[in-house]
Amino acid sequence: MAATAAITWQMRGRHFIINFLVFTLCYPLANLLAAHSNITRNVALPFESALPFVPWMIIPYLSSGIFFAASFAWVRTADDLRVLSQRLLLATVVATLAFAIYPLQFSMARSAIDNPLFAALFGFLSVVDRPYNQLPSLHVAFCFVFWRALQTSFVPTLARILLTAWLALVAMATVFTYQHQFLDVVAGLMLGLATALLVRHGRTQANVALYYLLAAGVTLLVGVLALHSMLAMYLAVSLLLVSLAYARPDRCFLHKRQGRYPFWIWLLYAPYLLGYWLTWCCVRWRERRRPPFIEISERLWIGRRLSAAEAEQLPPRPVVIDLANELSETPALRNGDYHYFPLLDLRLPDAAMTDEIVELLVRRIGEGHTIYLHCAMGYSRCTLIAKHYMEKIAR
Question: What is the secondary structure of 248-261 as a DSSP string?
Fold first, then answer.
């Protein structure tokens, strides 16, 4: 995704909804788990007992929610939106896992609040939040993410100064509203810095590894720590292994041979493989009135992974070039002239692999063979390779 790519309100809304759903699932759940564990430990330092309780700071403290929603509308480019969304998701999942694994409770009691407005706001806070989600302070981590994301959106110098001052006040309010201890704030700032290091601007491909890592984290929190499910543990480990494969990146991590997977791969990656198979079934149903493959040029057909019945519609004895790393090959096609090039979904293949596939296409078509080139769903990988092939023969 280019840094200057156009951004739509649909994109903004999609990223906001994903973040909102993850936060509203994970944050209250971590609070609930700590509440049921009767946690009393804290990380208060001796000097914190002298810190005053400042009721009016509830206003900047609660404004974090406004920033959470408004920041998705304020960022200017699609790359800024992606970075904001991924940093918030990473901070949310990491922090809530820390809350659930090592829960803490705030140690000091608030004094009476005379101002009715501030009393009402603290009453609202006590309904939506409990004193357990402590270290790292997600409020502080979010403030750092907001600050980094909105620096380029607030062009005038005065606006940037006001933005920085207000977000610093929000971070300070976590202490003076008696919501967080000092070490929570430090850990929250470190978490914000970590998200900035791990999620960078200018990325041109989808960060698939990060999304599988986040999915593994949510599964661990909800399925394992909350529901104590061994099946969820298996799913989390499988998702984590996929994340590691994409992070390396390792396009051969599924060890597919002659269109099939060994048994041990099914043991490790069954959720991933079944997820792709179900997606393939949905695509087939959605596009049931459309042809499963199309002719790009003389003797070159491209499309998705075919069912046995669909494979019979191909020209006789085609050379099959399979790019789908995530689906086994149709038995009717893997027993003929079959070639497999593992390409990771949602990632551009390297130039050497692209050239190797294109050279095979040129050679086999030049020999008079008909080629069926396919990926999993027929949307990206086979289309990309076909484009490179057409460019080569046009020279």
Answer: TT-TTTT--BTTB-
